[in-house]
Each structure stands twice: as structure tokens, then as C-alpha cells.
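Reopening this one. Same input as before:
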Amino acid sequence: MNNIISTVTEWPTIVQGALGSALFALCFSLGQRAVRAITNYSKAYSKRVSKDIVIRDELLKGVIAQGERNDILLVMSGMTYPALHYVIKAFLFFSFGYLAEGIVPVFGSIGVLIGVFFLFKALLYCPDLTKFEEPSSKSDKTN
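Same output, byte for byte:
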């Protein structure tokens, strides 16, 4: 492991930055997929979240079709509240894990893992707006 770290630190800064960005993107996408798989495992939670996500998607489709920027911002700000719930839970687990780490060291790691899980859960409520674009606007961006 030390050999890998020393090899990477010898590389140019731009390559290190690109490697770090690629690693972050990989962890981000794998984390989202893992949380979706875990939350879909729970039937009651899955039904509630699926209903919330369907409502969110329908609201966004309608608002984006109208093209009113203020309405889009209003719907997006309304969607931050369910996500904020999970962000607060994540910070509570980070804090309690950090405080309990002095008593039992493994509690710090557990708090961080559960906190990261709740952060990825919060991402379920933050939509990817590119899936709501019309096909003509997607082709304009690629050209």
C-alpha cells in the first residue's frame, strides 16, 4: 500500500487530480447504486420512496415542460426538505460517532458509515435534471 501511495505522489499534479476525480466519481456512483439497492430491499420504505420519487418526477416534467424558471426553482426547493431530513440524520451520526469514538473506537467508523449512508439516501430526493430534457436539447449539447 505504501508503495502505491509513493508511486502516485511522484506523478504530476494534474494526473493525481484526474485520478482523485475519477475515484470520487466511481465511489459516488457506486454509493448511489448501493443505497438504492439497500433501500429497495425494504418493502415499506420502497413503496413510500417510490411514491415520492414518482410525484417528484411528474412535478418536474410538468414544470420543465412549461419552462417557467420560477416554478422550477419552487419545485426544486420543495424537494430539498425531504433530503434535508436525511442530511441532518447524517450529521447526527457523524457527531455521535465522533463523540463515542473516545469510549469505543469502532463507534467512530460505524457513525461515519451510517452517516454516509444517510447522505446517499438524501441524494434519492435530488433529481438528475438531464433525464427531463427533451431529446433535441440533448443533441444540441453534444454537438
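So the earlier flakiness isn't reproducible anymore. For the record, Residues 14 and 20 are 10 Å apart (CA to CA).
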